[in-house]
Amino acid sequence: MRTKKRTLVTGKVFGFNPWMDQLLAINQIMETTGQKSEAPIIRDLIDEALAARRRKTSATESTVQPTPTADLTDSLQTIQTLLLRLIEQGQTEFQIESLSLELVQETLAEARAGRMGLWDSLAVSALRAQGKGTQEIARLLEQQSSEARNFAYGLAEEVRDELSAVESDSATVTIDGNARQGSFSYEEPASTQG
């Protein structure tokens, strides 16, 4: 019946009086299996009971959830500290970007005001002396503005293409994140020619 050899202990005898239902069940098993002695059947029943108890014990141990330890608490505190630092860095970065945007807007406003001041004080009077009318002077101003926009957008496209090339190269070669700038996107505004 068994595949592995086990040692039979002969010096130790377990003497007990079975319950009536246990005796009837053992007799029934003896008749079914054709066994002439109760001892092998009782040994098999003890094996089955011990195996069932081991399964029951291991099942209860696996369902018991471990209580949080000091290591887990320390890990959670470390994660919380890191997250708070990341949030603080993000807020600082946002403030820097907002300041940069304000500076760029101020620079553009000053450049436009300076250009218009020079246009009005120098170019308009020279063009009127040449006999140009108000509409033609306005058209010349718009033409120069359009050429300046086209130059700026063309330069921005070149920079964007260079950044895209660096990014596609970095897909195959690892580059330090601080060694290159991030890419940007822009859309050329619809021209207002009429």
Which structural class is indicated by helix and strand composition? mainly alpha
Distance between the termini: 102 Å
Shape: rod-shaped
**Which stretches are poorly predicted, pLDDT < 50 over at least 5 residues?**
175-181
> What amount of the residues lies in strands?
under 5%
Separate helix tally: 4
Largest sheet: none
Order of helical and strand elements: HHHH
Percent of residues in helices comes to: over 70%
Tell me the total number of β-strands.
0
Average of the residue pLDDT scores: 82
Evaluate the radius of gyration.
45 Å
Note down, in words, how this protein is organized.
By secondary structure, the chain is mainly alpha-helical. Among the domains are: 20-57; 97-173, no CATH class. It contains four helices and no strands. The chain is rod-shaped, with a radius of gyration of 45 Å.
Summed up:
By secondary structure, this protein is mostly helical. Helices cover 71% and strands 0% of the residues. Among the domains are: 20-57; 97-173, no CATH class.
Name its key features.
194 residues; 0% strand; 4 helices; rod-shaped; mainly alpha; single chain
Give me the secondary-structure topology.
Blueprint: H1 20-33, H2 38-63, H3 70-129, H4 134-170
